[in-house]
Amino acid sequence: MSTLVSRHHPLASPAEQLRILNQSHGVKPFEETLAASGLYPLTAAGIQVFQVNVGKLCNQTCKHCHVDAGPDRKEVMTRETAELVIEKLAATDIPVLDITGGAPELNPNFRFLVREARRLGRHVMDRCNLTVLLLPSQRDLAGFLAEHEVEIIASLPHYTAERTDAQRGEKVFDRSIEALRLLNELGYGQPESKLKLNLVYNPAGAFLPPQQQAIEADFRRELRRRHGVVFHHLFTMTNMPISRFLEFLIRSGNYDRYMQKLIRAYNPEAAAAVMCRYTLSVGWDGTLYDCDFNQMIGMPVDHGAPRHLREFDYEALKARRIATGQHCYGCTAGAGSSCGGATVS
């Protein structure tokens, strides 16, 4: 949660602080907008993705990170919790394990999760910041990912160094390109390869992402032309008004404008297709959430659904009522936003 908010409401939870902030700014409750489009209450429609956040430890400190991750974070999933993840995954037919962080690869149990999920025949995705692949301690990581046919979802703010480094830090772009070339050499991103390499783009400021197909074409052309890099798809994501991006919005005086932009762009089709309807998010400590964004503001599953892996109940969770708030306008604006990119064409 933004320190600019928490200093005024130090005893409130992050989710409550965000609610108070939106109320003070006159932001229309998201639930009212859902109801007007016939979608309230929002409910899950099964679980296709088990998204596991293994912690906030990261080798980068990005300006708009909704996780507030960095090298000094101590929140790291233990082996006991990682084993619970695999135990619960094995008891279901959920087809996808989506591992995120922080830099998820820095968790000592990352490779355990990959190996065991693949042994169960599940598809595994790794949300990778690319530069982690070049760390001396991770010199065999790219080969490990290829060996287990892990799909890589790689964040790359832009196809130019200036715009990428402005958001992620000096020389991050050059290291990201080096990592992408390494992955390409292993077969990732090649046209007919089963080693999937997808990129993620999010805007650098307080505006919505462009049309996904158009920006994908730009990235594909420029990365190949300038650097000889290829990839399969590019996903666009809207910056969520939480954590470091919320801090930026408040400091820059853009909070009201950005929230109204999201509200005006509300799309019922995008709301009907939000990722929380088919995804279950697991926190580093085993707490269950409807999505990674809810996780970062401390808003676990609600309305009677089991809240921890220890109480995991597949039947109850796959039909659960979803906890929502004004930050959800970020996922329902325009073409929609999810961990898999735009939700409507």
SSE arrangement:
Elements: H1 3-6, H2 14-24, H3 30-36, E1 49-53, H4 79-90, E2 96-100, H5 110-119, E3 123-128, H6 141-147, E4 151-155, H7 161-168, H8 172-185, E5 197-201, H9 212-227, E6 233-236, H10 243-251, H11 255-264, H12 268-272, E7 279-282, E8 288-289, H13 292-296, H14 314-317
Parallel strand pairs: 1-2, 1-7, 2-3, 3-4, 4-5, 5-6
Antiparallel strand pairs: 7-8
Helix pairs in contact: 4-5
Plain-language structure description:
The chain is of the alpha/beta class and 345 residues long. The protein has one domain: TIM Barrel. Helix content is 35%, strand content 10%. It has 14 helices and eight strands. The chain has helices spanning 3-6, 14-24, 30-36, 79-90, 110-119, 141-147, 161-168, 172-185, 212-227, 243-251, 255-264, 268-272, 292-296, 314-317; strands spanning 49-53, 96-100, 123-128, 151-155, 197-201, 233-236, 279-282, 288-289. Strands 6-5-4-3-2-1-7-8 form an eight-stranded mixed beta sheet. Strand 1 (49-53), helix 4 (79-90) and strand 2 form a beta-alpha-beta unit. Helix 4 (79-90) packs parallel to helix 5 (110-119). The radius of gyration is 19 Å and the shape is globular. The model has no long low-confidence stretch (mean pLDDT 93).
